[in-house]
Design goal:
transcription regulation; Jelly Rolls; AraC-bd_2; 7-stranded antiparallel beta sheet; alpha+beta; HTH_AraC; sequence-specific DNA binding; 322 residues; DNA-binding transcription factor activity
Length: 322
Amino acid sequence: MADVSALKVKETRATVLGEAEAHLVTSYCDHRLAPACKTETVDFRHRHLQFEDSGFNFLQYGQEVSVSSRGFEEFYMLEMPLAGGVDITFGTERLRSEPGKALILSPGPKFHSRWREGTRQWMLQIDRKLVDERLAQIARRRRSGNPVFNPVIDLATPHGRHFTFLLQIFSDMLAETADPVEHEAISPVLTSVVDELLRNIAFTSGASVVPERLQASPRHVKQAMDILRARYAERLMMSAIANEIGMSERALYDGFHTYYQRTPHEILTRIRMEEARRLIRNDGLAAAQAARSVGLHHLGRFSATYKDTFGVLPSADIRQDR
């Protein structure tokens, strides 16, 4: 167990961008900061509480700043804007956070972000080993690969409000008038955050790009998901699926937003891409054949979506495996 005396709030301030960059490199991982305008003057403030291999942070730059990094390797980062927001390219996804919309960034992908002027964020750094341990305990079996969470969290949902409540507890620990922080007070709150992620935020693991959930979804969402998995090669209309399972199209979209953080069409596209890749890599089908087999008939759009999903064109996958 960590030494209680080590749990102290540290604060760093800087007025020059280079000083802020040097501090972040030693605190997190390799970062490159660039000003949005010619001046490198910033109002950088970082309050930080480290507990073992996780930590809670308050961070601001003051000015608009661009941030580039090779990615997090040993931790997840839960980012919750208090003001302003961040535009980020994370792997192949383009994301946007703002008050009311948080992000959970998983280990691995490179990222480039633009912090808007006046942005202030809570940032919870979560040790990936803790996520793996809790996943094994909740799922009652080991899984291959770290979970990669769907990154956008709607803070208006019940689980989103719970995330806000939990991070507020950490924020209270950062207050200048707060009492000394004991490790015993941190561990249950951090575990609650991880469990909330695993139970309510869909994720992919291993080679799959189709998100899954540990906690059961409502019957109508499960029925729709079963249809997408079984009939992906058909020309599926979401209005027809909603009618088939006896609900409105709006309720169908709301259900997928809440339980998968994706639209039904996004899930269908991922199912099709995963099956197409199997056909290309395992069965040796050409890209056009694979596309038609999963219900897609525009080869150009198929290839572009394939590259967005896997980072490589289908023709490159063929060359690699043959």
